[in-house]
Structures are given as structure tokens and as C-alpha cells.
Sequence to fold (582 residues):
Amino acid sequence: MTTAIMALSNVRDLYQQVILEHYKKPRHKGKTNPVHRQQRGHNPSCGDTIELTLKLNDAGDTIEDVKFEGEGCAIAMASADLMADVLRGKQVTEALSMVQRFQNMMKGEDEFPKELRKLNVMQGVSQFPVRIKCANLTWHTLKAALESTHDLANTGFVSNEDT
Amino acid sequence: MTLTREKTLADRIRSDFPILHQKVNGKPLVYLDNAATSQKPLLVLNTLRDYYEQYNSNVHRGVHTLSAKATDAYEAARDKVAAFINAASRQEIVFTRNASEAINLVAYSWGSSLQTGDEIILSVMEHHSNLIPWQLLAQRTGAVLKFVELTAEQEFDLEHFKSLISDKTKLVATVHVSNTLGCISPVKEIAAIAHEHGAKVLIDACQSVPHMPIDVQQIDCDWLVASGHKMCAPTGIGFLYGKLDILRSMSPFLGGGEMIADVFLDHATYADLPHKFEAGTPAIAEAIALGAAVDYLSAIGMDNIYAYEAELTAYLWEQLGQISEIQTYGPQPKVAGLGRAALAAFTAGDVHPHDLSTILDQAGVAIRAGHHCTQPLHRHLGIQSTARASLSFYNTRQEIDVFIAALKEAIEFFGSIFS
Ligand SMILES: Cc1ncc(COP(=O)(O)O)c(C=O)c1O
Fold:
């Protein structure tokens, strides 16, 4: 069988080169040092898990570093790595509004402005409704990490599937 | 050169399944998610329609003509299921919503008599349906769960089982055909060993009843459960088989109408089997349609289905074996594809199962990705998730070819980025 079996153009829209690069060669895997916030998240129905660690500034209002560990598909892992990329130096309040914007982007209702446009490569996911939760997992987990009042380890999982 | 090919089983019956003849994402549908749920033949669809168009009525409650007709059809479906698995009596068949409900019924009704320190033996490959009800029971009663591990071939380890069983064992509950590994457990031997120790045996036959002949008297299990939706019937209907004397000794699970004999304000007596376990208006149309599904499968013949699916198994594994990135789980098929179920759980190198499933979907190929409700098994195998292609008697070699070609393309697509 020599002819292309699938509509590869659709697949390419979803799995853009950048996404696959972040999946294969993540730059932000690991744990921050020190750890000021720690949060695990998962998608129970598919088993994807993620653990975010955050380093904040002394005032606790700005993100200095984000790292992730976890297991999941290309979309989930690339989304985490991209997120970590753009969060450095962002204020906590800013990061929280980015969570909202990302979730809206997954509904096809919004996109990021120029200075954050690298996140827009995830837009293709909105065309694959069953995969949106993969892309959202890391952002959902970030929100829980930032909103948790106590410092340090939050040992439970937040589920990205309870709505 | 033209090859005249003998018509296969699938060639003969595919037209019975309207849903198979459609395009998905512009490609002909190749449905390889049969272990999750099967498709339904026209006979079953028409049975549902006839019921609602011609004799929809409540059962066991009216003396009018329609009610009598609905009751007859509902009870005839019970006879069909009883005959299909060779139950000794029609009273041994209890209709439930699905296999999960049937297991919960046993766990509550029979299980409540267990005491602290009593042991229940399961296997590490159980579907969550045959695990969580026993975890809950263990929490309620103080019973202890023990788990049979796998052989090197990733099958039920009978020797390990023998080392676990003792006179403390009150129940052995295990899967007949694993929905992930596809191995076929030696349920007859398991039952014999369990009975030597005075333990009861429950068989989760969700993945065996739709694919091979089942004889409960030959297996000599105490209970056996299955879901209709995996055997060409609608969702919302399944059944519990239980030996008559054991079902008799069990108290009711759910209370309500239908399951009573005589009701007073402060107490009641219960209906005879099987109605004692069927509280409330049942899934009448679905039960009758399950009867039709049994008729349909029986007309093809479960031996024929098993033999044809074995051919597909041999071909599927041969094809998968030629892709170096693919790692399969569960036992290799034996000669002629026998000895395991017509499904393959696998991983594909760098391509995560979810990504694979999305990419195959673009080729019209439906497979499942994830833990298939066997999370502890995946943990046991040291993997987070697998992709699974599961076949049925209406699948063809040509469909396996499409699946394999799409699989290769997906691996290539991901691979090309990184090389
Ligand atoms: C082996 C096995 N057991 C139990 C079940 C549960 O079936 P249901 O969800 O229909 O109760 C399934 C199907 O998902 C299964 O494959």
C-alpha cells in the first residue's frame, strides 16, 4: 500500500513541528530548586499525570521558574513544556489570567497576543475536542498550584476532568 | 492474476451491520474497538423497534394482551441466554444492567456474610469492575484480597494461584479472557481447585461470551457475568448466571416492585428466582434484544466465530510482529491463532497511545488508548497506557491491512521529526 492512508494535513495541524520538538526534547523537565509550590494533576480516564514545581520570588508574587515531570501524550507534555517556557518572570495574577485565556483558546474563542504567541501553536488542538483535556492538564494543574494557600507540597492530585 | 477467494464469515455477515458502512474523517470506518463495545446487527435493531412499535408494555404486571406479549418475549430472552451458556435452569439467569452490576449484586448479597480474615483471590489483570466491588466488600467486612500474578507469557499463573489458596479462601473471582492481555484463563481448573478448598468461584466472562462457546456447567463456576453490549446487544442489559441453590441462599440486592411475593407495611416476602433479584421495571426492550443477539450469534455458531477470529488473530499478530517499534502484551497466539483472544494491546515506540489513536482516527481506524480499566495491570507491567486493537467476527483481513498501514504511517510521521 503506497498511498497515504490518512489525511496527514489534519494530523500536521495538530502535531506541529514545534509541539513535537517540545515533546521529544523538553527543556523544563525536572524539579525547581527550591520548590515553593508543588502540585500534581491527572486525567483519570486516560491516566496522564503531571507534577509541577514552582519557584517564586521572595515576595511570592512572581514566578521565577517552573518545571514539570509526568507521563502523557505528546500534546500534554508539549503543552507543559511550552507553558513552563512562557511563565518565567510572570506575575502570579498574570499567570492566572493566562490559564483562563488558554482554556478559552481551546474552545476556539481566544488566542494569545504577540509576546505570548508561541502558545498559539496549541490552537490546532481545539479542532480535536477529545484531546483538549490533554492540552489543558498542565494549565489546570498550574491554577491549583497557584491558588493553594499553603506553601510547598500539596500531595493530592487535582483532576482535570471534574467540571 | 485473479484470485478467487472463498467468502469469509465477515464477507457473509457484514451487511447485517449498518454502522460499519460509513466514512469517518473521509475514510471507510475500520472499527477495532470491539472489546469496549460491539456493533449491533439489524436483527437486534429491528427487535428494539418492533418492541416499541408493536408491544411496548410493562412486564409481569398486566393481564392485557400487550403486557402478556412483552412478558413472554422478556422471559423468552432469559431462556435464550440460559441455553446459550448451557445453564441448568432458566431461573439461574438474572438480568442486570451490565456485568458491573452483576458483580456488585454478588458482592453485596453474598459478600455481606464474609468476616474479618476471610480471603478473596483475584488476579492482577482484573478489570476495575471485578476489583472495586471486592475492595468495597473488603472495607465493609475486613476480608482480605489476594492477587494471582502472571506467568512469563503474561497469563494467569496457576501455580501461583495454588500457592495462594487455602481454607481461608471464600471466593475466587477472575476474568476469563483479559480485555488487555487477551489471555484465556483456565477457568475449569481454577474452579476445581477453588471448590476443593470450599471457595466459591465467580467468572468475569465479558470478553469470552461474545467470542467463544461457553458452558457454565462444564466450567462448574458458581457465578458468571457478562454484558450484553459486548455481544451485539444494546447497552443497559447484562446478566448474572448463578447456581440455583446459591442464588436461593442469597438475600435480595435491590428492593422494589417485581421482586416481591407478598408485601405488608413492615415486611415482605420475596419472589422466587430469578425475580428476587430484578427489582423495578427492567430494561425490557434491551433484554428482548439481548435474546435476539443470542439468536444471531447462535445462528452463525460460536465455534465458527471462534475459528474465524483465530484466523484474524494469527494475521494481526503476524503483521504487528513485522513492525520493529511495536511491543505487544499478553501471550503470543498458538498455532492457527488459537489460545488467545482476537485483540492486541501494544505500545509503539515514541508514539504515545493517545497520539496514535488520534492519528489512526484520521485514517478512519477506531482503536482504544489508555489503561482500558485495568490500571493495576498496567502498573504491574510498568507501563502507563497502551493502545488496543480488538477484533470481532465482522472484521476482515483487509481492515487489518488498513490498520497496519496507518500504524506504520503514524510511526513514520513521529519518527521523521526526530531523526
Ligand atoms: C473483562 C471485563 N470485565 C468487565 C467489564 C465491564 O463491563 P460493563 O462496563 O459493561 O459492566 C468489561 C468491559 O468494559 C470487561 O472488558
